[in-house]
Here is the input.
Amino acid sequence: MKKWCFVVLLSFFAASCGDEKKVHETEVYRIRSVGMLSTTEYALGKIIKWNDEGEWYKFGDRKILLSCKATVKAGINLGAIKNADIEVKGNKITIQLPPPEIISFEMNPDLIRTEMTEVNGFRSDFSQEDKEKVLQKGEESIRKDLQKLNILDEAEQNAKIFLVDFYKNQGFEQVIVHETPKDKRNTNIDH
Here is the structure.
């Protein structure tokens, strides 16, 4: 009888020591339900100077100085993660991230200001349509600046941190997140 009790106690002790937190497969793929994960936001200001010298037959010139601000958000579409992008081996999980992307680009009309206008000769003042064309040039300039700021790299790094924390909270001891190679990214910032 003592031998049998000893075996039962030993089995119970071994089972309790090796008690690993098992992660259900449905929990692993639940990250996709997050959808678009915005991890980086920039607020950018721009001063736009425009000199409109006009055509040869127009006497005089006109200048305008506008200021504007844009809010840009970047992140990762976690809904795009496929089953093949996630590999689980025991308490280790490996994930291939989808490429980072610009989620939104917004120029708030309340933050657009005409700082200065100068019109001389026989030229007419700037119309609202003229100002919109100048703002369009400003938006193009801000979008070009975004590529220099590495907003997509920052968004990807923040997403990696989020995923590591998420899966460690799910019970994984090792979380490896692979980035999308830079040559396979869409660097178009036209959102």
In short: The chain has one domain: 33-184. The mean pLDDT is 79.
